[in-house]
Write a structure and sequence with these properties.
With about 425 residues, the chain is α/β, with parallel strands linked by helices. It is about 40% helix and about 15% strand. Bound molecules: nicotinamide-adenine-dinucleotide.
Protein backbone atom coordinates (compact mmCIF):
# COMPACT_ATOMS: atom_id res chain seq x y z
CA UNK A 1 0.00 0.00 0.00
CA UNK A 2 1.66 3.22 -1.06
CA UNK A 3 1.20 6.26 1.11
CA UNK A 4 3.43 9.01 2.30
CA UNK A 5 1.63 9.54 5.55
CA UNK A 6 2.15 7.09 8.39
CA UNK A 7 -0.30 4.21 7.95
CA UNK A 8 -3.63 4.62 9.66
CA UNK A 9 -5.70 1.73 10.90
CA UNK A 10 -8.14 0.21 8.43
CA UNK A 11 -10.76 -0.75 10.94
CA UNK A 12 -12.86 -2.88 8.67
CA UNK A 13 -12.16 -4.89 5.57
CA UNK A 14 -11.74 -2.85 2.42
CA UNK A 15 -13.40 -4.61 -0.48
CA UNK A 16 -11.37 -5.00 -3.64
CA UNK A 17 -12.34 -3.53 -6.99
CA UNK A 18 -14.12 -6.37 -8.73
CA UNK A 19 -16.03 -7.61 -5.68
CA UNK A 20 -19.11 -6.35 -7.48
CA UNK A 21 -21.62 -7.74 -5.00
CA UNK A 22 -19.76 -5.82 -2.27
CA UNK A 23 -19.54 -2.45 -3.95
CA UNK A 24 -22.35 0.03 -4.23
CA UNK A 25 -22.64 2.18 -7.29
CA UNK A 26 -20.89 5.19 -5.70
CA UNK A 27 -17.58 3.39 -5.21
CA UNK A 28 -17.96 1.34 -8.41
CA UNK A 29 -18.67 4.49 -10.42
CA UNK A 30 -15.83 6.40 -8.74
CA UNK A 31 -13.34 3.63 -9.58
CA UNK A 32 -14.49 3.27 -13.18
CA UNK A 33 -14.34 7.03 -13.71
CA UNK A 34 -10.81 7.03 -12.26
CA UNK A 35 -9.64 4.26 -14.62
CA UNK A 36 -11.34 5.89 -17.58
CA UNK A 37 -9.63 9.24 -17.04
CA UNK A 38 -6.26 7.69 -16.11
CA UNK A 39 -6.19 5.98 -19.52
CA UNK A 40 -5.73 9.42 -21.09
CA UNK A 41 -2.62 10.18 -19.06
CA UNK A 42 0.87 8.77 -19.10
CA UNK A 43 1.11 8.34 -15.34
CA UNK A 44 2.44 5.88 -12.81
CA UNK A 45 -0.10 3.05 -12.63
CA UNK A 46 1.02 2.31 -9.04
CA UNK A 47 -0.37 5.67 -7.94
CA UNK A 48 -3.66 5.03 -9.76
CA UNK A 49 -3.85 1.65 -8.01
CA UNK A 50 -3.32 3.41 -4.67
CA UNK A 51 -6.09 5.90 -5.43
CA UNK A 52 -8.64 3.11 -5.90
CA UNK A 53 -8.54 2.44 -2.14
CA UNK A 54 -9.29 4.54 0.93
CA UNK A 55 -6.41 5.14 3.35
CA UNK A 56 -8.75 4.15 6.20
CA UNK A 57 -12.37 3.57 7.03
CA UNK A 58 -13.29 4.17 10.65
CA UNK A 59 -16.39 2.32 11.79
CA UNK A 60 -17.87 3.04 15.19
CA UNK A 61 -20.97 2.20 17.17
CA UNK A 62 -22.82 5.05 18.80
CA UNK A 63 -25.07 4.30 21.78
CA UNK A 64 -27.72 6.95 22.32
CA UNK A 65 -30.20 7.32 25.15
CA UNK A 66 -33.63 7.98 23.67
CA UNK A 67 -36.01 10.43 25.31
CA UNK A 68 -37.95 7.51 26.82
CA UNK A 69 -34.84 6.22 28.62
CA UNK A 70 -34.11 3.26 26.31
CA UNK A 71 -30.76 2.99 24.50
CA UNK A 72 -30.37 2.52 20.73
CA UNK A 73 -27.05 1.77 19.07
CA UNK A 74 -26.27 3.31 15.67
CA UNK A 75 -23.41 2.60 13.26
CA UNK A 76 -21.25 5.45 12.00
CA UNK A 77 -18.44 5.67 9.46
CA UNK A 78 -15.73 8.08 8.47
CA UNK A 79 -13.87 7.17 5.28
CA UNK A 80 -10.49 8.79 4.61
CA UNK A 81 -9.50 8.45 1.00
CA UNK A 82 -6.31 10.40 0.26
CA UNK A 83 -4.46 13.17 2.14
CA UNK A 84 -1.42 13.73 -0.04
CA UNK A 85 -2.35 17.39 -0.65
CA UNK A 86 -3.68 18.27 2.82
CA UNK A 87 -6.10 17.31 5.59
CA UNK A 88 -9.10 15.14 4.74
CA UNK A 89 -12.26 17.09 3.96
CA UNK A 90 -15.82 15.99 3.34
CA UNK A 91 -19.41 15.88 4.49
CA UNK A 92 -21.18 13.92 7.19
CA UNK A 93 -24.51 12.33 6.30
CA UNK A 94 -27.36 11.13 8.57
CA UNK A 95 -29.45 8.79 6.44
CA UNK A 96 -30.83 5.23 6.78
CA UNK A 97 -29.12 4.27 3.48
CA UNK A 98 -25.56 5.17 4.59
CA UNK A 99 -23.07 2.34 3.96
CA UNK A 100 -19.33 2.11 4.32
CA UNK A 101 -18.96 1.52 0.57
CA UNK A 102 -20.99 4.65 -0.18
CA UNK A 103 -18.77 6.62 2.21
CA UNK A 104 -15.69 5.32 0.38
CA UNK A 105 -17.06 6.27 -3.05
CA UNK A 106 -18.07 9.74 -1.87
CA UNK A 107 -14.69 10.24 -0.17
CA UNK A 108 -12.99 9.50 -3.50
CA UNK A 109 -15.12 12.16 -5.20
CA UNK A 110 -14.04 14.61 -2.50
CA UNK A 111 -10.38 13.92 -3.30
CA UNK A 112 -10.93 14.71 -6.98
CA UNK A 113 -13.13 17.73 -6.16
CA UNK A 114 -10.52 19.31 -3.87
CA UNK A 115 -7.77 18.61 -6.42
CA UNK A 116 -9.73 20.01 -9.39
CA UNK A 117 -10.27 23.20 -7.35
CA UNK A 118 -6.59 23.14 -6.30
CA UNK A 119 -7.54 23.26 -2.61
CA UNK A 120 -5.00 21.96 -0.07
CA UNK A 121 -7.31 19.19 1.12
CA UNK A 122 -7.81 15.47 0.56
CA UNK A 123 -11.06 13.51 0.44
CA UNK A 124 -13.23 12.16 3.25
CA UNK A 125 -16.88 11.31 3.81
CA UNK A 126 -18.81 9.97 6.76
CA UNK A 127 -22.23 9.14 7.94
CA UNK A 128 -24.46 7.52 10.50
CA UNK A 129 -27.05 4.92 9.55
CA UNK A 130 -30.07 6.70 11.00
CA UNK A 131 -33.24 8.44 9.90
CA UNK A 132 -32.81 11.88 11.49
CA UNK A 133 -36.54 12.57 11.11
CA UNK A 134 -37.16 9.88 13.74
CA UNK A 135 -34.98 11.62 16.35
CA UNK A 136 -35.90 14.53 18.59
CA UNK A 137 -33.51 17.49 18.64
CA UNK A 138 -31.99 16.38 21.94
CA UNK A 139 -31.56 12.81 20.65
CA UNK A 140 -29.79 14.20 17.57
CA UNK A 141 -27.55 16.27 19.82
CA UNK A 142 -26.62 13.24 21.96
CA UNK A 143 -25.99 11.15 18.82
CA UNK A 144 -23.76 13.86 17.33
CA UNK A 145 -21.75 14.48 20.49
CA UNK A 146 -21.16 10.76 21.10
CA UNK A 147 -20.22 10.15 17.44
CA UNK A 148 -17.77 13.08 17.67
CA UNK A 149 -16.17 11.48 20.70
CA UNK A 150 -15.94 8.08 18.98
CA UNK A 151 -14.09 9.57 15.98
CA UNK A 152 -12.24 12.28 17.95
CA UNK A 153 -8.76 10.88 17.30
CA UNK A 154 -9.34 10.89 13.55
CA UNK A 155 -10.67 14.46 13.08
CA UNK A 156 -9.18 17.89 13.77
CA UNK A 157 -8.39 21.17 11.98
CA UNK A 158 -5.21 19.65 10.53
CA UNK A 159 -6.45 16.06 10.15
CA UNK A 160 -10.02 15.78 8.90
CA UNK A 161 -12.63 18.53 8.73
CA UNK A 162 -16.27 17.36 8.43
CA UNK A 163 -19.04 19.50 6.91
CA UNK A 164 -22.83 19.24 6.53
CA UNK A 165 -24.37 16.81 4.05
CA UNK A 166 -27.74 15.05 3.74
CA UNK A 167 -29.55 15.07 7.11
CA UNK A 168 -27.01 17.31 8.86
CA UNK A 169 -26.81 21.09 9.08
CA UNK A 170 -25.10 24.03 10.76
CA UNK A 171 -26.54 22.98 14.13
CA UNK A 172 -24.94 19.53 13.76
CA UNK A 173 -21.62 21.21 12.97
CA UNK A 174 -21.97 23.46 16.05
CA UNK A 175 -22.41 20.39 18.28
CA UNK A 176 -19.37 18.70 16.73
CA UNK A 177 -17.26 21.82 17.19
CA UNK A 178 -18.38 22.13 20.80
CA UNK A 179 -17.89 18.43 21.65
CA UNK A 180 -14.43 18.41 20.06
CA UNK A 181 -13.37 21.75 21.60
CA UNK A 182 -14.51 20.72 25.09
CA UNK A 183 -12.41 17.56 24.94
CA UNK A 184 -9.37 19.39 23.56
CA UNK A 185 -9.79 22.14 26.19
CA UNK A 186 -9.58 24.94 23.60
CA UNK A 187 -12.00 26.47 21.12
CA UNK A 188 -11.18 24.97 17.73
CA UNK A 189 -13.70 26.20 15.14
CA UNK A 190 -11.53 24.84 12.30
CA UNK A 191 -12.52 21.25 13.13
CA UNK A 192 -15.69 21.58 11.03
CA UNK A 193 -17.05 23.87 8.34
CA UNK A 194 -20.65 24.85 7.65
CA UNK A 195 -21.05 26.38 11.13
CA UNK A 196 -23.14 29.49 11.83
CA UNK A 197 -21.05 32.67 11.28
CA UNK A 198 -21.34 33.60 14.98
CA UNK A 199 -19.01 30.70 15.91
CA UNK A 200 -16.64 30.91 12.94
CA UNK A 201 -18.84 29.94 10.01
CA UNK A 202 -18.49 31.74 6.70
CA UNK A 203 -20.98 34.02 5.05
CA UNK A 204 -22.08 32.58 1.73
CA UNK A 205 -21.34 28.93 2.63
CA UNK A 206 -24.96 27.79 2.36
CA UNK A 207 -25.48 29.31 -1.10
CA UNK A 208 -22.03 28.36 -2.41
CA UNK A 209 -22.71 24.99 -4.14
CA UNK A 210 -25.75 26.42 -5.94
CA UNK A 211 -23.79 29.54 -6.85
CA UNK A 212 -20.97 27.47 -8.34
CA UNK A 213 -23.45 25.34 -10.30
CA UNK A 214 -24.98 28.53 -11.74
CA UNK A 215 -21.55 30.02 -12.55
CA UNK A 216 -20.36 26.88 -14.30
CA UNK A 217 -23.70 26.52 -16.12
CA UNK A 218 -23.38 30.11 -17.33
CA UNK A 219 -19.83 29.48 -18.61
CA UNK A 220 -20.92 26.23 -20.27
CA UNK A 221 -23.85 28.00 -21.97
CA UNK A 222 -21.49 30.70 -23.23
CA UNK A 223 -19.08 28.01 -24.44
CA UNK A 224 -21.83 26.35 -26.47
CA UNK A 225 -23.22 29.72 -27.65
CA UNK A 226 -26.55 29.66 -25.86
CA UNK A 227 -27.81 33.17 -25.36
CA UNK A 228 -28.17 33.83 -21.61
CA UNK A 229 -31.66 35.26 -22.07
CA UNK A 230 -33.01 32.44 -24.20
CA UNK A 231 -31.57 29.41 -22.45
CA UNK A 232 -34.25 27.12 -21.06
CA UNK A 233 -33.43 25.24 -17.86
CA UNK A 234 -34.90 22.29 -15.92
CA UNK A 235 -33.68 21.68 -12.36
CA UNK A 236 -34.30 18.44 -10.49
CA UNK A 237 -34.27 19.01 -6.72
CA UNK A 238 -35.17 22.37 -5.21
CA UNK A 239 -32.98 22.24 -2.12
CA UNK A 240 -29.86 24.14 -1.19
CA UNK A 241 -28.11 23.38 -4.49
CA UNK A 242 -31.05 23.38 -6.93
CA UNK A 243 -32.91 26.43 -5.60
CA UNK A 244 -29.83 28.63 -5.36
CA UNK A 245 -28.70 27.63 -8.85
CA UNK A 246 -32.19 28.13 -10.38
CA UNK A 247 -32.64 31.56 -8.77
CA UNK A 248 -29.24 32.87 -9.91
CA UNK A 249 -29.74 31.60 -13.45
CA UNK A 250 -33.16 33.24 -13.47
CA UNK A 251 -31.58 36.51 -12.29
CA UNK A 252 -29.07 36.24 -15.14
CA UNK A 253 -31.90 35.93 -17.66
CA UNK A 254 -32.34 32.19 -18.19
CA UNK A 255 -35.85 30.74 -18.51
CA UNK A 256 -36.37 28.18 -15.74
CA UNK A 257 -39.19 25.98 -17.05
CA UNK A 258 -39.22 23.22 -14.41
CA UNK A 259 -38.08 22.67 -10.82
CA UNK A 260 -38.89 19.64 -8.68
CA UNK A 261 -38.77 17.99 -5.32
CA UNK A 262 -39.30 14.38 -4.34
CA UNK A 263 -43.07 14.68 -5.02
CA UNK A 264 -42.88 15.99 -8.58
CA UNK A 265 -42.09 19.04 -10.67
CA UNK A 266 -43.61 22.47 -11.23
CA UNK A 267 -43.60 23.06 -14.99
CA UNK A 268 -44.28 26.09 -17.16
CA UNK A 269 -42.84 26.18 -20.69
CA UNK A 270 -43.07 30.00 -20.59
CA UNK A 271 -40.89 30.13 -17.46
CA UNK A 272 -41.42 29.87 -13.70
CA UNK A 273 -40.28 32.40 -11.11
CA UNK A 274 -38.01 30.30 -8.87
CA UNK A 275 -37.96 33.09 -6.26
CA UNK A 276 -41.69 32.57 -5.67
CA UNK A 277 -41.33 28.82 -5.08
CA UNK A 278 -40.06 27.90 -1.60
CA UNK A 279 -36.85 25.88 -1.43
CA UNK A 280 -36.61 22.67 0.59
CA UNK A 281 -35.19 24.67 3.48
CA UNK A 282 -37.81 27.44 3.34
CA UNK A 283 -40.84 25.11 3.20
CA UNK A 284 -40.00 21.41 2.89
CA UNK A 285 -41.49 19.54 -0.07
CA UNK A 286 -43.80 22.42 -1.11
CA UNK A 287 -42.74 22.85 -4.77
CA UNK A 288 -45.81 21.21 -6.26
CA UNK A 289 -48.14 23.30 -4.04
CA UNK A 290 -47.02 26.35 -6.01
CA UNK A 291 -47.48 24.92 -9.51
CA UNK A 292 -50.21 25.32 -12.11
CA UNK A 293 -48.90 22.33 -14.02
CA UNK A 294 -47.26 19.36 -12.34
CA UNK A 295 -45.13 16.73 -14.11
CA UNK A 296 -43.18 13.77 -12.79
CA UNK A 297 -39.45 13.76 -12.06
CA UNK A 298 -38.86 11.26 -14.87
CA UNK A 299 -40.55 13.63 -17.29
CA UNK A 300 -38.49 16.58 -16.02
CA UNK A 301 -35.29 14.71 -16.83
CA UNK A 302 -36.36 14.17 -20.43
CA UNK A 303 -37.77 17.67 -21.16
CA UNK A 304 -36.65 19.37 -24.35
CA UNK A 305 -34.58 22.13 -22.72
CA UNK A 306 -31.17 23.64 -23.37
CA UNK A 307 -29.82 22.92 -19.91
CA UNK A 308 -30.64 20.15 -17.44
CA UNK A 309 -29.39 20.40 -13.85
CA UNK A 310 -29.89 17.24 -11.77
CA UNK A 311 -29.50 18.62 -8.23
CA UNK A 312 -31.33 16.12 -6.01
CA UNK A 313 -29.79 12.67 -5.58
CA UNK A 314 -27.36 10.26 -7.25
CA UNK A 315 -27.96 7.79 -10.10
CA UNK A 316 -30.95 9.52 -11.73
CA UNK A 317 -29.56 9.55 -15.28
CA UNK A 318 -29.00 5.91 -16.08
CA UNK A 319 -28.74 3.45 -18.96
CA UNK A 320 -32.57 3.29 -18.82
CA UNK A 321 -33.25 6.99 -19.57
CA UNK A 322 -30.02 8.33 -21.14
CA UNK A 323 -31.39 7.71 -24.64
CA UNK A 324 -34.48 9.79 -23.85
CA UNK A 325 -32.64 12.86 -22.56
CA UNK A 326 -33.45 15.80 -24.84
CA UNK A 327 -31.43 18.50 -23.05
CA UNK A 328 -28.51 19.86 -25.05
CA UNK A 329 -26.27 20.25 -22.04
CA UNK A 330 -26.16 18.76 -18.53
CA UNK A 331 -24.52 20.42 -15.53
CA UNK A 332 -24.41 18.17 -12.47
CA UNK A 333 -25.58 19.79 -9.22
CA UNK A 334 -25.98 16.60 -7.19
CA UNK A 335 -23.09 14.26 -6.46
CA UNK A 336 -23.04 11.35 -8.90
CA UNK A 337 -26.36 11.88 -10.72
CA UNK A 338 -25.11 10.20 -13.91
CA UNK A 339 -24.10 6.53 -13.95
CA UNK A 340 -21.03 5.37 -15.84
CA UNK A 341 -23.17 3.64 -18.51
CA UNK A 342 -25.33 6.73 -18.98
CA UNK A 343 -22.21 8.86 -19.35
CA UNK A 344 -21.09 6.72 -22.28
CA UNK A 345 -24.49 6.95 -23.98
CA UNK A 346 -24.58 10.74 -23.53
CA UNK A 347 -21.02 11.04 -24.90
CA UNK A 348 -22.04 9.05 -27.99
CA UNK A 349 -25.05 11.33 -28.38
CA UNK A 350 -22.80 14.43 -28.11
CA UNK A 351 -24.61 15.73 -25.05
CA UNK A 352 -21.94 17.39 -22.88
CA UNK A 353 -22.05 16.61 -19.15
CA UNK A 354 -20.19 19.08 -16.94
CA UNK A 355 -19.37 17.01 -13.86
CA UNK A 356 -20.25 17.39 -10.19
CA UNK A 357 -16.61 17.55 -9.09
CA UNK A 358 -16.32 20.88 -10.89
CA UNK A 359 -19.87 22.26 -10.91
CA UNK A 360 -20.89 21.88 -7.25
CA UNK A 361 -17.38 22.43 -5.85
CA UNK A 362 -18.37 25.89 -4.58
CA UNK A 363 -19.42 24.19 -1.33
CA UNK A 364 -16.02 22.81 -0.46
CA UNK A 365 -14.33 25.94 -1.79
CA UNK A 366 -16.20 28.19 0.65
CA UNK A 367 -15.55 25.55 3.32
CA UNK A 368 -11.87 26.13 2.59
CA UNK A 369 -12.45 29.89 3.00
CA UNK A 370 -14.21 29.15 6.31
CA UNK A 371 -11.27 27.07 7.50
CA UNK A 372 -8.87 29.89 6.55
CA UNK A 373 -11.03 32.39 8.46
CA UNK A 374 -11.05 30.08 11.51
CA UNK A 375 -7.31 29.54 11.49
CA UNK A 376 -6.58 33.24 11.00
CA UNK A 377 -9.36 34.34 13.42
CA UNK A 378 -10.54 36.91 10.88
CA UNK A 379 -13.89 36.79 9.13
CA UNK A 380 -14.55 37.82 5.53
CA UNK A 381 -17.54 39.81 4.25
CA UNK A 382 -20.10 38.12 2.00
CA UNK A 383 -18.79 40.20 -0.88
CA UNK A 384 -15.21 38.98 -0.30
CA UNK A 385 -16.41 35.37 -0.16
CA UNK A 386 -18.41 35.67 -3.38
CA UNK A 387 -15.60 37.46 -5.24
CA UNK A 388 -13.05 34.83 -4.18
CA UNK A 389 -15.45 32.00 -5.02
CA UNK A 390 -16.18 33.42 -8.47
CA UNK A 391 -12.43 33.70 -9.14
CA UNK A 392 -11.71 30.14 -7.96
CA UNK A 393 -14.57 28.75 -10.06
CA UNK A 394 -13.41 30.60 -13.17
CA UNK A 395 -9.87 29.39 -12.66
CA UNK A 396 -11.02 25.74 -12.31
CA UNK A 397 -13.36 26.12 -15.30
CA UNK A 398 -10.47 27.43 -17.42
CA UNK A 399 -8.18 24.56 -16.32
CA UNK A 400 -10.83 21.97 -17.25
CA UNK A 401 -11.80 23.71 -20.49
CA UNK A 402 -8.13 23.74 -21.54
CA UNK A 403 -8.01 19.92 -21.20
CA UNK A 404 -11.27 19.51 -23.14
CA UNK A 405 -9.79 21.55 -25.97
CA UNK A 406 -6.30 20.03 -25.83
CA UNK A 407 -7.30 16.37 -25.62
CA UNK A 408 -10.81 16.28 -27.14
CA UNK A 409 -12.17 14.45 -24.09
CA UNK A 410 -15.45 14.74 -22.17
CA UNK A 411 -15.82 17.38 -19.47
CA UNK A 412 -15.75 14.63 -16.84
CA UNK A 413 -12.52 13.15 -18.17
CA UNK A 414 -11.04 16.65 -18.41
CA UNK A 415 -11.90 17.42 -14.78
CA UNK A 416 -10.43 14.08 -13.67
CA UNK A 417 -7.31 14.75 -15.73
CA UNK A 418 -6.80 18.11 -13.99
CA UNK A 419 -7.36 16.50 -10.58
CA UNK A 420 -5.30 13.38 -11.26
CA UNK A 421 -2.35 15.32 -12.66
CA UNK A 422 -2.13 17.29 -9.41
CA UNK A 423 -2.58 14.22 -7.22
CA UNK A 424 -0.08 12.10 -9.09
CA UNK A 425 2.44 14.93 -9.02
CA UNK A 426 1.97 15.31 -5.28
CA UNK A 427 2.36 11.55 -4.68
CA UNK A 428 5.43 11.39 -6.91
CA UNK A 429 7.06 14.29 -5.04
CA UNK A 430 6.31 12.98 -1.58
CA UNK A 431 7.22 9.39 -2.45
CA UNK A 432 6.21 6.19 -0.74
CA UNK A 433 6.33 5.93 3.06
CA UNK A 434 8.18 4.14 4.61
P1 LIG B 1 -31.47 19.38 0.07
O1 LIG B 1 -31.84 18.39 1.10
O2 LIG B 1 -31.37 20.82 0.45
O3 LIG B 1 -32.51 19.30 -1.16
C1 LIG B 1 -32.71 18.14 -1.88
C2 LIG B 1 -33.89 18.35 -2.83
O4 LIG B 1 -34.00 17.19 -3.66
C3 LIG B 1 -35.23 18.51 -2.15
O5 LIG B 1 -35.99 19.45 -2.87
C4 LIG B 1 -35.85 17.12 -2.25
O6 LIG B 1 -37.26 17.12 -2.23
C5 LIG B 1 -35.33 16.72 -3.61
N1 LIG B 1 -35.34 15.27 -3.83
C6 LIG B 1 -34.99 14.29 -2.97
N2 LIG B 1 -35.17 13.09 -3.55
C7 LIG B 1 -35.61 13.33 -4.81
C8 LIG B 1 -35.97 12.50 -5.88
N3 LIG B 1 -35.92 11.18 -5.78
N4 LIG B 1 -36.39 13.10 -7.03
C9 LIG B 1 -36.46 14.44 -7.11
N5 LIG B 1 -36.13 15.27 -6.13
C10 LIG B 1 -35.73 14.72 -4.98
O7 LIG B 1 -30.11 18.84 -0.57
P2 LIG B 1 -28.91 19.68 -1.21
O8 LIG B 1 -28.00 20.13 -0.14
O9 LIG B 1 -29.45 20.67 -2.18
O10 LIG B 1 -28.14 18.51 -1.98
C11 LIG B 1 -28.59 18.02 -3.24
C12 LIG B 1 -27.47 17.25 -3.89
O11 LIG B 1 -26.33 18.10 -4.03
C13 LIG B 1 -26.97 16.02 -3.13
O12 LIG B 1 -26.54 15.08 -4.07
C14 LIG B 1 -25.77 16.56 -2.36
O13 LIG B 1 -24.84 15.52 -2.05
C15 LIG B 1 -25.21 17.50 -3.41
N6 LIG B 1 -24.34 18.54 -2.86
C16 LIG B 1 -24.74 19.32 -1.80
C17 LIG B 1 -23.88 20.29 -1.31
C18 LIG B 1 -24.26 21.15 -0.18
O14 LIG B 1 -23.35 21.74 0.46
N7 LIG B 1 -25.54 21.33 0.10
C19 LIG B 1 -22.61 20.46 -1.90
C20 LIG B 1 -22.26 19.69 -3.00
C21 LIG B 1 -23.14 18.73 -3.46
Amino acid sequence: MSSNTPPTTVESTVSQPGDEEEVTSAVATARRQLEHAAAHLDIDSNIIERLKYPAAVHEVTVPVERDDGTVDVFTGYRAHHDSVRGPYKGGLRYHPGVTREECIGLSMWMTWKCAVMDLPFGGAKGGIVVDPKELSTSEKERLTRRFTDEIRDTIGPNKDIPAPDMGTDSQTMSWIMDAYSMQEAETLPGVVTGKPPVIGGSYGREEAPGRSVALIAREACNYYDYSPTETTVAVQGFGSVGANAARLLDEWGAIVVAVSNVNGAAYDPAGLDPHKIPSHDEEPEAVTDYADEIIGNDELLTLDVDLLIPAAIGDVITEANADSIQAHLIVEGANGPTTFAADEILAERDIPVVPDILANAGGVTVSYFEWLQDINRRSWSLEEVQDELDQEMMSAWNDVRAEVEKRDVTWRDAAYIVALSRLVDAHANRGLWP
